[in-house]
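Dear U.,

For the methods section draft, I wanted the exact inputs and outputs in one place so we can describe them consistently. I've listed the two proteins in the order they'll appear in the manuscript figures. Please don't edit the token lines directly; just add comments below if something needs changing.

First protein:
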Amino acid sequence: MPNKNLKNFASDNAAPVHPALMEALVAENNGPAMGYGNDPTTMDMERRLQDLFGCDLKAFPVATGTAANVLSLAVLTPPYGTIYCHKSSHIEGDECGAPEFYTGGAKLTLLDGDDGKLDPVILDQALSLTDPTNVHHVPPTAISMTQVTEAGTVYSPDEVRAIGDIAQKYQLGLHMDGARFANAVASLGCAPADITWKGGVDILSFGATKNGAMAVEAVVFFNQEKAKEFEFRRKRGAHLFSKSRYLSAQLKRYVENGLWLEMAETANKMACRLAEGISKLPDDKARLHFPVKANMLFATLTETAIERLEQAGFLFYVMGPRHKAEVRLVTSWNTAVTEVDEMLEILGSNN
């Protein structure tokens, strides 16, 4: 059984399912429906995403972010191609080689960029040095960007468009890993379209699991030609669920009445409250590494503070050797103000 006395700052994956989404699952569990996505709920979910993004699109539910990312990339690149991404991207550091496996051997080309973001200048320069016709070299075939980044920062609409323009310039597919897409939209206060298809994104991994869902993401195709191939790759990759309606029921409720943004806004506000408190502490007590734009922050604490937080029941990740005292703190849709303030009190303690 979960320990309700623990305070979760480890991951939004560790948060419980939002009651409204659990209720949607229960409501869906009433009578039969056709399988493999041929049910009314899945069809309605796709229509709701079309309304949300303001365009025609194809949407496919899958159960994990890894599946969403790597099956998308498999559509965009052949086995002999390469995908350009930031060196700290999730597909590089946290997918256990799944992009290479699902693409049949495609390469990841890693690039630098401040605050976890692809730098358009660096990206353009790297691509300008390639020769797609040279059979001795791996040709560039796709770009993948992470929104929210692995540093907790976000790409603005202009930054997405800058990457999209480069993708168009070199005729490459553009994928967005949107595991925390809701947090990015809530942070920017923009329309979902402004940081996706209007910026040149072909495929979006539209995350819900990190933001209150049980286990569901949607692969959203703005470039619908690519969707035809995806259906076969999803089946071949063992991610076509016979009872897809239970995934779709969550997504349908997720975007109804702004629930997805409501949850993301709460998580973002708690992270900003925590970041503001940390920024007021002396550097020898706590220091932030990156600008805090969504619901994830990185900081250097003290070993003593880490021990006291753990003793008080706080869950979080220590990144790297413990003596360096570098941590990742993630807030969720259900993070309480009292939890944030208790953490700040411990961090500011002189005892």
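Second protein (the one for the lower panel):
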Amino acid sequence: MTDKATTRRVLTASLVGTAVEFYDFYIYATAASLVFGPLFFPSSSPTAQLLSSYATFAIAFIARPVGAVFFGHFGDRIGRKSTLVASLLLMGGSTTAIAFLPGYAMAGWIAPLLLCILRFGQGFGLGGEWGGAALLAVENAPPGWKARFGMFPQLGAPVGFIAANGLFLILGLTLTSEQFFSWGWRIPFLLSAVLVAIGLWVRLSLTETPAFKAALEEAPPPTVPLGEVMRTNWREVLGGTFGVVACFCIYYISTAFALGYGTKTLGYSREAFLGVQLIAILFMAGGIIWAGYWSDATNPRRVLMIGCALAVLGGFALAPLLGSGSLLLVGAFLSVAMVLMGLVYGPLGAWLPGLFPARVRYTGASVAFNVGGIIGGGMTPLIAEGLAKAGGLTYVGYYLSAACVLSLVALLLLKPKAE
């Protein structure tokens, strides 16, 4: 086992780096719900602008598996450390550049084009981030601690969310609507540069993981990691992909869709709804920690299956609670949903890497996680918005339950050899 200082450094790097990456991703999701529609797209109707904004949100999910293949290739060939630094720089640079974009009124069609390019850069960078951060944690974990070490990159998600939405909440309380729409929304994107610098400072002090070093001693690195993992572990890639669908669907319905629907359709103020979401995200952090300890006491797959089964039932509570007209009941639903999110997300840091041998682990875990992100999250705000317009929140709840059933079936079929 590594000494305590090294352990703290590894866990901090996996947490801080992922928090920075997810902060970048979440400020885009929040801005897409609040300002990007009228800012970057021609006037037609508020609904059309919101749908167009959500469509740019989906671009990053298409970019993520491309980034997973690219960074996974180098992560399995040259190491985890340098690959993680590169992914952080790419996503942080893309996010910061969004702050300087002109709107549609100034630049016409060039404005949404540039937004889409930078959004692709965000997704490309994040495609290499999660897998590397998870491997950094679990490949340094002592026996019996993999899930608890693996929960640290997962905790980066609520930390990044709190930083992103907390900043938007502060801006909403201190700026007028005109100021926020004119220039205030750019501040969170500018601050990304500071957070990236902190993440780089932590990660540049790391060494390679013991598992990667051992894999290099046993055999030369794979020439084409993607080809090898698809040839030898295609079942794990397929099962892992569908196993992560639930967490993405739960999260983006409870955050991006709920924020847009709550403020634009239900009429809640932006500040009030962001405040409710900030409270709910604390329940997600609690769920992740609970899942980490529970997974080490049992196994990650079992916790994931229980979380998915409970989330199937949670889908039926979406319509009566989110559409109740009571912000208290809305908050109750979002809090429960975030606990369930913790149960289906927290164990992934240990479960997904554990499906693959060390020599192709970066590629296998990253591809499964990010392709699953397309299925579970890429189009979810757009689909949920369309379902809500066509048939009401009940259909959104059915959609959520169906996604969780899909993950539950994948987990049931992909039984590890050790179990």
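Candidate sentences for the figure legend, describing the second protein: Residues 189 and 243 are 32 Å apart (CA to CA). The chain has one domain: 4-413.

Thanks,
Y.
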